[in-house]
Design goal:
By secondary structure, the protein is mainly alpha-helical. It contains ten helices and five strands; from the N terminus they run H-H-H-E-E-E-E-H-H-H-H-H-E-H-H. The protein has one domain.
Length: 316
């Protein structure tokens, strides 16, 4: 019974924090997007992804670092408290949320595996200097896509090779390699774990900025920007929207309005959009992590006590 009460408390706290924070993200992400408009699209993309994952990460950390230890250390094992009413409903909702997220992610993986297996049937490996395998596929669509999470590769259709010049092919390949480098397919999988009503707008905005960030990373001068714009226009003729899988990053798979915006950005490319290596964000992150660890180290015992008091109130 003690173990069951512990699970009920843990899942109840998790779902409560997760839902409150998710609702806050749904209500505020557009304001954050407006605030970040002056930043590079890569930074905006990172901000949107962080906001999308913030409820899951925060709820998991609080539950694992505070709720569970406070229950194990401070909850009397001799007391046989019944599990019923609102606390029990919260716990069941937490279990349901976790199961639904896992099932959603597993189904997305199964669909992606089936689609990639179909696309790569009778595929051929091409000789390139890319750090991941590049496969030539027989299908016309997807024209070019980054596929796979553990073993990423880039799929290129024969139609794309025929339509693009060597310079256009190279910048298009650079775009897909940027998706591989940023592990965007893994990020898409993580989003499948954290379904919540009202998040579709944030996810669409993240996808848009991610594509634009990959465009910026793929080019380093005006000529390359025009080559990528030409590649987008040519390959969009194969299909208005590629039949891409959920967990792949196709070069052409977005609505026409977004494709037009990407082409316009590339045509008006300027030097200030170049993505240069920077360690400043990593340094800030390391300092913030160290400060947070020191604060928790000094106040952990007090926080554990406060969390236990809060969970006792919640479970009554």
């Amino acid at each position: 019974m003690f173990a069951l009460r512990g699970l009920d408390v843990s899942f109840a706290v998790f779902v409560l924090i997760y839902c409150v924070l998710s609702l806050a993200v749904v209500l505020t992400w557009r304001k954050a997007l407006i605030w970040a408009r002056h930043c590079s699209v890569r930074r905006v993309s990172n901000v949107l992804f962080t906001l999308r994952m913030f409820p899951l990460i925060t709820a998991t950390l609080i539950t694992a670092a505070f709720t569970i230890p406070s229950f194990l250390l401070l909850e009397p094992r001799a007391i046989n408290e019944p599990m019923e009413g609102f606390p029990l409903a919260l716990g069941i909702a937490g279990v349901g949320l976790a199961v639904a997220g896992i099932c959603n992610a597993v189904l997305a993986l199964i669909r992606a595996k089936r689609n990639i297996s179909e696309w790569t049937r009778e595929s051929e490996t091409t000789e390139t200097a890319a750090p991941v395998p590049v496969l030539r596929i027989r299908r016309s669509v997807p024209a070019m896509t980054a596929a796979g999470i553990v073993r990423p590769r880039v799929l290129v259709s024969g139609s794309a090779e025929f339509m693009l010049t060597p310079s256009e092919m190279q910048v298009a390949l650079n775009h897909e390699l940027e998706h591989v480098r940023r592990r965007d397919n893994l990020r898409k999988l993580l989003m499948r774990l954290v379904a919540f009503p009202g998040m579709s707008g944030l996810e669409a905005a993240w996808l848009e900025t991610t594509e634009m960030a990959a465009d910026d990373a793929a080019v380093s001068n005006t000529g390359e920007a025009l080559d990528l714009a030409a590649a987008l226009i040519k390959l969009s003729r194969l299909s208005s929207v590629d039949s891409s899988s959920d967990l792949t990053a196709a070069l052409i798979h977005t609505p026409a309005s977004m494709m037009n915006a990407r082409v316009e950005r590339l045509i008006s490319w300027s030097e200030d959009r170049r993505i240069l290596p920077s360690t400043l964000a990593l340094r800030y992150g390391a300092v913030l992590t160290l400060v947070t660890f020191l604060v928790f180290f000094e106040t952990y015992g007090h926080l554990i006590s406060k969390v236990h008091t809060a969970t006792e109130w919640l479970m009554r």
